[in-house]
Amino acid sequence: MKTETIDIINIGLLITAFIVALLLPFELFLFSYAFLGPLHYLTEINWLDNKKYFIKSKQNIYKIFVVLASVIAVFPLIKYLNFDNAFLNFMSSQKHIILVSGFLFSVGLILFSKFKHLIIVFVSSILFSLLCFLFVPKVILALGIFLPTLIHVYIFTLLFMIYGQLKQRTNAGFISILLLISAPVILLFMDVVPNSYEVSEFAEQTFLGSGFLSINTIVADFFTDLNPSNIDIMSPTILKVQVFMAFAYTYHYLNWFSKTSIIGWKSSLTHKRTRYIIVVWLASVGIYLYDYITGLTVLFFMSLLHVVLEFPLNATTIREIAHVGFKKIAGVTGIRKPN
Q1: Is residue 116 part of a domain?
Q2: CA separation (Å) from 222 to 69, 113, 133, 216, 217?
Q3: What does the pLDDT look like over 88-111, one tens digit per residue?
Q4: 322 in a structural domain
Q5: Do 17 and 247 meet the contact criterion of CB atoms below 8 Å apart?
Q6: Is residue 119 part of a domain?
Q7: CA-based, 20 to 30 A from 34: which of 54, 57, 207, 332?
Q8: Residue 267 exposed, middle or buried by CB count within 10 Å (0-12, 13-18, 19+)
Protein backbone atom coordinates (compact mmCIF):
# COMPACT_ATOMS: atom_id res chain seq x y z
CA MET A 1 0.00 0.00 0.00
CA LYS A 2 1.35 3.44 -0.97
CA THR A 3 2.39 5.91 1.70
CA GLU A 4 -0.13 8.49 0.45
CA THR A 5 -2.97 5.96 0.79
CA ILE A 6 -1.90 5.01 4.32
CA ASP A 7 -1.73 8.68 5.29
CA ILE A 8 -5.26 9.21 3.95
CA ILE A 9 -6.46 6.25 6.02
CA ASN A 10 -4.73 7.77 9.04
CA ILE A 11 -6.62 11.03 8.55
CA GLY A 12 -9.84 9.02 8.72
CA LEU A 13 -8.67 7.15 11.83
CA LEU A 14 -7.60 10.39 13.49
CA ILE A 15 -10.93 12.13 12.86
CA THR A 16 -12.89 9.04 13.92
CA ALA A 17 -10.89 8.70 17.16
CA PHE A 18 -11.48 12.36 17.96
CA ILE A 19 -15.25 12.20 17.34
CA VAL A 20 -15.72 9.01 19.37
CA ALA A 21 -13.57 10.47 22.15
CA LEU A 22 -15.89 13.50 22.24
CA LEU A 23 -18.92 11.24 22.55
CA LEU A 24 -17.55 8.51 24.83
CA PRO A 25 -14.38 9.79 26.52
CA PHE A 26 -14.30 7.31 29.38
CA GLU A 27 -15.63 4.27 27.55
CA LEU A 28 -13.32 4.71 24.54
CA PHE A 29 -10.27 5.14 26.75
CA LEU A 30 -11.01 2.03 28.81
CA PHE A 31 -11.76 -0.02 25.68
CA SER A 32 -8.63 1.08 23.79
CA TYR A 33 -6.37 0.58 26.79
CA ALA A 34 -7.63 -2.95 27.44
CA PHE A 35 -8.15 -4.29 23.89
CA LEU A 36 -5.73 -2.37 21.65
CA GLY A 37 -3.05 -1.65 24.24
CA PRO A 38 -1.76 -5.19 24.95
CA LEU A 39 -1.59 -6.07 21.24
CA HIS A 40 0.38 -2.88 20.65
CA TYR A 41 2.81 -3.67 23.48
CA LEU A 42 3.46 -7.18 22.20
CA THR A 43 3.91 -6.34 18.53
CA GLU A 44 6.10 -3.32 19.25
CA ILE A 45 8.38 -5.18 21.67
CA ASN A 46 8.79 -7.90 19.03
CA TRP A 47 9.62 -5.26 16.37
CA LEU A 48 12.06 -3.44 18.66
CA ASP A 49 13.80 -6.73 19.39
CA ASN A 50 14.10 -7.35 15.64
CA LYS A 51 15.64 -3.88 15.25
CA LYS A 52 18.08 -4.47 18.16
CA TYR A 53 16.23 -1.73 20.04
CA PHE A 54 17.95 0.94 17.89
CA ILE A 55 20.96 0.72 20.21
CA LYS A 56 24.40 1.46 18.80
CA SER A 57 26.20 -0.93 21.13
CA LYS A 58 26.18 -4.61 20.12
CA GLN A 59 26.07 -5.69 23.77
CA ASN A 60 22.79 -6.65 25.43
CA ILE A 61 22.37 -3.19 26.96
CA TYR A 62 18.60 -3.41 26.43
CA LYS A 63 18.49 -5.67 29.50
CA ILE A 64 19.11 -2.57 31.60
CA PHE A 65 15.72 -1.28 30.43
CA VAL A 66 14.11 -4.58 31.36
CA VAL A 67 15.57 -4.22 34.86
CA LEU A 68 14.37 -0.60 35.08
CA ALA A 69 10.86 -1.63 34.02
CA SER A 70 10.88 -4.52 36.50
CA VAL A 71 11.89 -2.24 39.37
CA ILE A 72 9.27 0.38 38.52
CA ALA A 73 6.60 -2.32 38.09
CA VAL A 74 7.00 -3.21 41.76
CA PHE A 75 6.02 0.29 42.95
CA PRO A 76 2.23 -0.04 42.41
CA LEU A 77 2.26 -3.10 44.67
CA ILE A 78 3.85 -1.21 47.57
CA LYS A 79 0.59 0.63 48.30
CA TYR A 80 -0.94 -2.70 49.34
CA LEU A 81 1.65 -3.06 52.10
CA ASN A 82 1.35 -1.45 55.49
CA PHE A 83 3.70 1.54 55.05
CA ASP A 84 3.16 5.13 56.13
CA ASN A 85 2.47 7.89 53.62
CA ALA A 86 5.95 9.41 53.94
CA PHE A 87 7.56 6.18 52.78
CA LEU A 88 5.06 5.76 49.95
CA ASN A 89 5.74 9.32 48.73
CA PHE A 90 9.48 8.68 48.89
CA MET A 91 9.18 5.49 46.85
CA SER A 92 6.95 7.26 44.32
CA SER A 93 9.63 9.91 43.77
CA GLN A 94 12.23 7.19 43.16
CA LYS A 95 10.04 5.80 40.38
CA HIS A 96 10.11 9.13 38.58
CA ILE A 97 13.89 9.43 38.96
CA ILE A 98 14.38 5.96 37.48
CA LEU A 99 12.19 6.75 34.48
CA VAL A 100 13.95 10.03 33.70
CA SER A 101 17.35 8.39 34.19
CA GLY A 102 16.35 5.67 31.73
CA PHE A 103 15.40 8.20 29.08
CA LEU A 104 18.61 10.19 29.54
CA PHE A 105 20.62 6.97 29.32
CA SER A 106 18.88 6.11 26.04
CA VAL A 107 20.31 9.29 24.53
CA GLY A 108 23.80 7.99 25.33
CA LEU A 109 22.99 4.65 23.72
CA ILE A 110 22.53 6.24 20.29
CA LEU A 111 25.79 8.18 20.63
CA PHE A 112 28.22 5.69 22.19
CA SER A 113 28.98 2.01 21.75
CA LYS A 114 31.99 1.34 24.03
CA PHE A 115 31.05 -0.23 27.35
CA LYS A 116 33.13 2.17 29.49
CA HIS A 117 31.45 5.15 27.85
CA LEU A 118 28.01 3.65 28.46
CA ILE A 119 28.82 3.12 32.15
CA ILE A 120 29.79 6.78 32.45
CA VAL A 121 26.57 7.84 30.69
CA PHE A 122 24.47 5.56 32.90
CA VAL A 123 25.95 6.91 36.16
CA SER A 124 25.75 10.49 34.86
CA SER A 125 22.07 10.02 33.95
CA ILE A 126 21.23 8.89 37.47
CA LEU A 127 23.24 11.70 39.11
CA PHE A 128 21.71 14.33 36.84
CA SER A 129 18.19 13.07 37.61
CA LEU A 130 18.91 13.12 41.34
CA LEU A 131 20.23 16.68 41.17
CA CYS A 132 17.18 17.79 39.20
CA PHE A 133 14.93 16.14 41.78
CA LEU A 134 16.70 17.99 44.59
CA PHE A 135 16.63 21.42 42.96
CA VAL A 136 13.70 21.30 40.48
CA PRO A 137 11.55 18.41 41.76
CA LYS A 138 8.45 19.47 39.84
CA VAL A 139 10.25 18.91 36.54
CA ILE A 140 11.24 15.34 37.48
CA LEU A 141 7.76 14.58 38.83
CA ALA A 142 6.11 15.90 35.67
CA LEU A 143 8.45 13.94 33.40
CA GLY A 144 8.05 10.81 35.51
CA ILE A 145 4.27 11.01 35.20
CA PHE A 146 4.00 12.09 31.56
CA LEU A 147 6.88 10.15 29.95
CA PRO A 148 5.04 6.80 30.05
CA THR A 149 1.64 8.39 29.40
CA LEU A 150 0.88 11.52 27.36
CA ILE A 151 4.43 12.15 26.14
CA HIS A 152 4.61 8.56 24.91
CA VAL A 153 1.22 8.40 23.22
CA TYR A 154 1.01 11.96 21.89
CA ILE A 155 4.37 13.75 21.66
CA PHE A 156 6.36 10.77 20.40
CA THR A 157 3.57 9.77 18.01
CA LEU A 158 3.67 13.31 16.62
CA LEU A 159 7.47 13.17 16.29
CA PHE A 160 7.30 9.82 14.47
CA MET A 161 4.79 11.31 12.04
CA ILE A 162 7.00 14.38 11.49
CA TYR A 163 10.02 12.16 10.86
CA GLY A 164 8.03 10.03 8.41
CA GLN A 165 6.86 13.16 6.61
CA LEU A 166 10.46 14.38 6.30
CA LYS A 167 11.42 11.07 4.67
CA GLN A 168 8.40 10.61 2.38
CA ARG A 169 6.47 13.81 1.91
CA THR A 170 2.77 13.49 1.14
CA ASN A 171 -0.04 16.02 1.31
CA ALA A 172 -2.12 13.65 3.42
CA GLY A 173 0.78 13.15 5.82
CA PHE A 174 1.13 16.90 6.29
CA ILE A 175 -2.62 17.24 6.92
CA SER A 176 -2.60 14.42 9.49
CA ILE A 177 0.22 16.17 11.41
CA LEU A 178 -1.74 19.44 11.41
CA LEU A 179 -4.86 17.64 12.63
CA LEU A 180 -2.97 15.92 15.44
CA ILE A 181 -1.51 19.25 16.57
CA SER A 182 -4.93 20.92 16.29
CA ALA A 183 -6.77 18.38 18.47
CA PRO A 184 -5.72 19.73 21.91
CA VAL A 185 -6.08 23.33 20.68
CA ILE A 186 -9.65 22.65 19.56
CA LEU A 187 -10.45 21.04 22.91
CA LEU A 188 -8.93 23.95 24.80
CA PHE A 189 -11.39 26.42 23.27
CA MET A 190 -14.34 24.07 22.89
CA ASP A 191 -17.33 24.30 25.22
CA VAL A 192 -17.93 20.99 26.95
CA VAL A 193 -21.37 20.54 28.49
CA PRO A 194 -21.18 17.99 31.37
CA ASN A 195 -24.97 17.41 31.29
CA SER A 196 -24.66 15.98 27.77
CA TYR A 197 -22.53 13.07 29.03
CA GLU A 198 -23.98 9.94 30.59
CA VAL A 199 -21.19 7.76 31.92
CA SER A 200 -22.14 4.22 32.86
CA GLU A 201 -21.62 3.17 36.46
CA PHE A 202 -19.11 0.54 35.34
CA ALA A 203 -17.05 3.05 33.33
CA GLU A 204 -17.08 5.59 36.16
CA GLN A 205 -16.12 3.14 38.90
CA THR A 206 -13.49 1.47 36.74
CA PHE A 207 -11.93 4.78 35.77
CA LEU A 208 -11.84 6.00 39.37
CA GLY A 209 -10.33 2.71 40.50
CA SER A 210 -7.68 2.74 37.76
CA GLY A 211 -5.81 5.77 39.08
CA PHE A 212 -5.89 7.53 35.71
CA LEU A 213 -7.81 10.41 37.27
CA SER A 214 -4.55 11.60 38.86
CA ILE A 215 -3.10 12.24 35.39
CA ASN A 216 -6.22 14.18 34.37
CA THR A 217 -5.97 16.24 37.54
CA ILE A 218 -2.31 17.14 36.96
CA VAL A 219 -3.00 18.16 33.35
CA ALA A 220 -6.11 20.13 34.34
CA ASP A 221 -4.17 21.89 37.08
CA PHE A 222 -2.09 23.61 34.39
CA PHE A 223 -5.18 25.46 33.20
CA THR A 224 -7.31 25.98 36.31
CA ASP A 225 -7.05 26.06 40.09
CA LEU A 226 -8.38 22.71 41.23
CA ASN A 227 -9.34 21.65 44.71
CA PRO A 228 -7.59 18.23 45.10
CA SER A 229 -10.02 17.22 47.82
CA ASN A 230 -13.05 17.74 45.60
CA ILE A 231 -12.34 16.51 42.06
CA ASP A 232 -15.40 15.93 39.91
CA ILE A 233 -14.76 13.77 36.84
CA MET A 234 -17.72 15.46 35.13
CA SER A 235 -16.33 18.97 35.48
CA PRO A 236 -15.70 20.68 32.11
CA THR A 237 -11.90 20.80 32.57
CA ILE A 238 -11.56 17.16 33.63
CA LEU A 239 -13.86 16.13 30.77
CA LYS A 240 -11.74 18.01 28.24
CA VAL A 241 -8.61 16.29 29.50
CA GLN A 242 -10.34 12.92 29.37
CA VAL A 243 -11.47 13.50 25.79
CA PHE A 244 -7.87 14.26 24.88
CA MET A 245 -6.63 11.20 26.78
CA ALA A 246 -9.10 8.93 25.00
CA PHE A 247 -8.22 10.43 21.63
CA ALA A 248 -4.44 10.36 22.17
CA TYR A 249 -4.31 6.75 23.36
CA THR A 250 -6.72 5.46 20.74
CA TYR A 251 -5.00 7.18 17.84
CA HIS A 252 -1.58 6.12 19.14
CA TYR A 253 -2.67 2.49 18.84
CA LEU A 254 -4.51 2.94 15.52
CA ASN A 255 -1.55 4.77 14.01
CA TRP A 256 0.70 1.84 14.92
CA PHE A 257 -1.60 -0.81 13.45
CA SER A 258 -2.27 1.14 10.25
CA LYS A 259 1.40 1.59 9.40
CA THR A 260 2.52 -2.03 9.30
CA SER A 261 4.08 -1.67 5.84
CA ILE A 262 5.71 1.73 6.52
CA ILE A 263 7.19 0.79 9.90
CA GLY A 264 7.77 -2.79 8.83
CA TRP A 265 6.76 -4.39 12.11
CA LYS A 266 4.59 -7.01 10.41
CA SER A 267 7.61 -8.48 8.59
CA SER A 268 9.34 -9.01 11.95
CA LEU A 269 6.67 -11.50 13.02
CA THR A 270 7.56 -15.16 12.71
CA HIS A 271 4.85 -17.83 12.83
CA LYS A 272 6.04 -18.93 16.28
CA ARG A 273 6.09 -15.40 17.70
CA THR A 274 2.73 -14.61 16.14
CA ARG A 275 1.18 -17.55 17.97
CA TYR A 276 2.73 -16.45 21.26
CA ILE A 277 1.52 -12.88 20.75
CA ILE A 278 -2.04 -13.99 19.98
CA VAL A 279 -2.16 -16.26 23.04
CA VAL A 280 -0.78 -13.59 25.39
CA TRP A 281 -3.05 -10.92 23.90
CA LEU A 282 -6.17 -13.09 24.33
CA ALA A 283 -5.14 -13.89 27.90
CA SER A 284 -4.59 -10.18 28.59
CA VAL A 285 -8.02 -9.24 27.25
CA GLY A 286 -9.51 -12.08 29.28
CA ILE A 287 -8.00 -10.69 32.48
CA TYR A 288 -9.38 -7.22 31.71
CA LEU A 289 -12.83 -8.70 31.06
CA TYR A 290 -12.66 -10.64 34.32
CA ASP A 291 -11.62 -7.59 36.34
CA TYR A 292 -10.32 -4.38 34.80
CA ILE A 293 -8.28 -3.23 37.82
CA THR A 294 -6.63 -6.66 38.04
CA GLY A 295 -5.79 -6.36 34.36
CA LEU A 296 -4.08 -3.02 34.97
CA THR A 297 -1.99 -4.49 37.77
CA VAL A 298 -1.03 -7.67 35.90
CA LEU A 299 -0.17 -5.91 32.64
CA PHE A 300 1.51 -2.86 34.14
CA PHE A 301 4.97 -4.40 33.62
CA MET A 302 4.37 -5.11 29.93
CA SER A 303 2.91 -1.64 29.41
CA LEU A 304 5.89 0.01 31.08
CA LEU A 305 8.40 -2.31 29.37
CA HIS A 306 7.30 -1.28 25.88
CA VAL A 307 7.61 2.38 26.92
CA VAL A 308 11.18 2.14 28.26
CA LEU A 309 12.37 -0.18 25.48
CA GLU A 310 11.21 2.50 23.04
CA PHE A 311 13.37 5.19 24.65
CA PRO A 312 16.36 4.67 22.29
CA LEU A 313 13.98 4.90 19.32
CA ASN A 314 12.53 8.12 20.74
CA ALA A 315 16.01 9.58 21.13
CA THR A 316 16.95 8.44 17.62
CA THR A 317 13.84 10.08 16.16
CA ILE A 318 14.58 13.40 17.90
CA ARG A 319 18.18 13.26 16.64
CA GLU A 320 17.13 12.53 13.05
CA ILE A 321 14.54 15.32 13.02
CA ALA A 322 17.17 17.74 14.36
CA HIS A 323 19.66 16.47 11.76
CA VAL A 324 17.23 17.02 8.88
CA GLY A 325 16.26 20.40 10.30
CA PHE A 326 19.90 21.48 10.51
CA LYS A 327 20.46 20.41 6.90
CA LYS A 328 17.47 22.49 5.81
CA ILE A 329 18.70 25.56 7.71
CA ALA A 330 22.26 25.03 6.47
CA GLY A 331 21.00 24.77 2.91
CA VAL A 332 19.27 28.13 3.21
CA THR A 333 21.97 30.00 5.14
CA GLY A 334 25.07 28.30 3.74
CA ILE A 335 26.23 27.12 7.19
CA ARG A 336 28.42 24.04 7.12
CA LYS A 337 27.77 21.14 9.46
CA PRO A 338 30.51 20.95 12.10
CA ASN A 339 32.93 18.02 11.81
Answers
A1: yes
A2: 28, 40, 20, 10, 9
A3: 565 666 788 888 998 998 888 888
A4: yes
A5: yes
A6: yes
A7: 54
A8: exposed
